[in-house]
């Protein structure tokens, strides 16, 4: 999977990341998922969203994370489906307490040794067949997105197809609630600084990278934000995309978020692939299919 | 003479100087259910329910002292106190089920007695569960009154006056001798016809011939208990058994607010509401029997320890759950949009759902998700509502396999945009076939089953805001929806006498898939695609969620509303159509730019 892509020395924006870089991204993504699994295992009834977010932050800080694409989020109960969200401030963790049977989502984007990951982990406190159903349905979206990216459909079309699949499944599109309604955004390497402040939960270094991508993209006709709008009416741009389809069904929400590698290879298999197939939601999907 | 119950084994139980007539149905090895009748009734009031329960339970009915073929105490005064009635119940329970506790069900005074049995210490261990229908505990009622008299807020005062007016007969029964004379005279003779006309009881030979003496003796139930209990209600009237409460919504004698504070006396109370009047054991036996059986079965499995219910969705609460729990709801056009959202809303309330759609996969998907969010059962069925034969086949299948539908939602519809001159005959046929004939077929098949069962129900037809707003651009669609609206109103008038409500829902602009499947007449295929995308976008910008329409559907059924506009624009257009028809006509001339 970690094939060397693109000729050495060619500009990265056109070819996608090199093999060594992919290893770094994969490592931080695994670290983030390990954090999510560990924190999820510690969640008990009565834990608040703020406490869950702090647990993620501290766990990652102990392992050397100093900068963030965004600080960890935690959503419990019907906040996993963004019920009643009107302003972006509502994304931030609240004092909502976890109860048995409640779904939860942990979402974090640490920067480790200059590599960024952005992951989303959905779980449930105790058995919840509806949540299992949602997770299984997300699997179909993971396949759909990869297939259509390999077909080089425009991002806007893929977005619409994801929407249609969600409607057929009976779910609501909840990633539309994210800023610009994005289903994905580009991530990149971030320069390590001694001081890396964040504004409104987002790391300034990463925002700077995103802004510079947006500027380049604006000149070249692409955008680092994968949205339903006209500015996403272009084929997938080589690079790393943090893809985060988010389903909502009547007060229960579920998402996954992981990195998709897009290259300019002509071979469809190598033109796009998920950075890592050994992730909790993928394993769960395979177990579900095997059972 | 009393004809007794068909196939019942009768025995007489002697207790406290009187003799009670006890009838038994079903296998004595099954859990025992004791049905206690009210006033002025005899055990035959439970006949229909008993027949529906006898296959699964050992059903026991007895005539309360002084009623039916049980003898009356001498003297009558002081012979009907709740203490003596408790003795009677214990004697019957010991006779019919000496080893196991019995499940108790009471209606009216049977329920008043039932509350006494379920709250006094000496019956502990003899009762397994109690289902109360239309009869509060006198002690709880006493506390209810005291609380409202001592702190009469406007709402409490209104509740007090409301129940005070409903209780007129209680005051009348306290006059000496006159009630007896009336019952043995003209009132007794006319009572069956009064029940038929005012309470909508079916004319099937009930009440029995013993009515005048039942009613005359029963007056002592009131005189011996009401004043003393209301003046000094017991402070410890806590239920020591699980209680299920079934409240008829149209009861002339008892306010629904009587049960507002009941959780205080009976923790883990299971509540149901049933549209119907006071005598639900006669008018709604199917639903009553279903709820009784379900409650008893759940209590039995809990007692066995087998039913440690693992990871089940917690039982829903609130008015929707009370009303729709366990009811059978059929929704057409349930593979998407408003239909799917409606199916989910009913499922969340605990209803059994049949999701019907042309798209079989979508319908079964709706059913699958409905089961996950609380429907005890849900099925997806594939049928085209425009196809008469298919609908008849579906109706026969649903009736045979799932039962008679309690709530029918005729929701399937298609969009068609275009002027009259641009609309071909084929287009007209298609839109009328689905939008109008679909509703007609639904009402003819499922509505007929509902009417023939004679136990009430509700039909919801999805019309549209276009039903009262003409438009040059929606000739065929508006016509079909206006027809649905008128059909609903006519049917509502026709079925009102049978306790079946009919509602027309007029949603307005709602963000559903109707735009992507809509047809635009008189334009090229390419232009059609463009207009679809454009309308879909506009509807998306409006972004009114179908879930809110679904909520309006449930509200319409709950409150039996005739015409329900949903979105603000639908309300506005309805207002225009009623008060400023000229503005409405001017609006109709505008050609929307798409």
TrEMBL record, chain A:
- Please tell me whether the keyword ATP-binding is annotated for this protein: no
SUPFAM superfamilies to which the protein is assigned, alphabetical: Creatinase/aminopeptidase
Query: What range(s) does the Peptidase M24 domain occupy?
Result: 25-264
What keywords would UniProt list here?
Answer: Aminopeptidase, Hydrolase, Protease
What Gene3D superfamilies does UniProt report for this protein, alphabetically? Creatinase/methionine aminopeptidase superfamily
Pfam families reported in the protein's UniProt record: Peptidase_M24
Concerning InterPro entries, the annotation shows: Creatinase/aminopeptidase-like (IPR036005), Pept_M24 (IPR000994), Peptidase_M24B (IPR050659)
- Where is region (Disordered) located? 1-21
Q: Which GO terms describe its molecular function?
A: aminopeptidase activity
Which domain of life, per UniProt? Bacteria
Protein name per UniProt? Aminopeptidase P family protein
From TrEMBL, chain B:
Keyword Oxidoreductase included in the entry's annotation: yes
- Which CDD domains does this entry report, sorted A to Z? SDR_c
Q: Where do the Ketoreductase domain residues begin and end? A: 327-508
**Gene3D superfamilies linked to this entry:** alpha/beta hydrolase (3.40.50.1820), NAD(P)-binding Rossmann-like Domain (3.40.50.720)
Magnesium as UniProt keyword = no
Coiled coil (UniProt feature): none
Swiss-Prot/TrEMBL keywords? Oxidoreductase
InterPro entries cross-referenced by the UniProt entry? AB_hydrolase_1, AB_hydrolase_fold, KR_dom, NAD(P)-bd_dom_sf, Sc_DH/Rdtase_CS, SDR_fam
Q: Which GO terms describe its molecular function?
A: oxidoreductase activity
**According to the lineage, what is the superkingdom?**
Bacteria
Entries under PROSITE patterns matching the protein? ADH_SHORT
Q: What does UniProt give as the signal peptide span?
A: none
Q: Which NCBIfam families match?
A: PRK05855.1
Name of the featured protein = SDR family oxidoreductase
Q: Which organism is it from?
A: Streptomyces morookaense (Streptoverticillium morookaense)
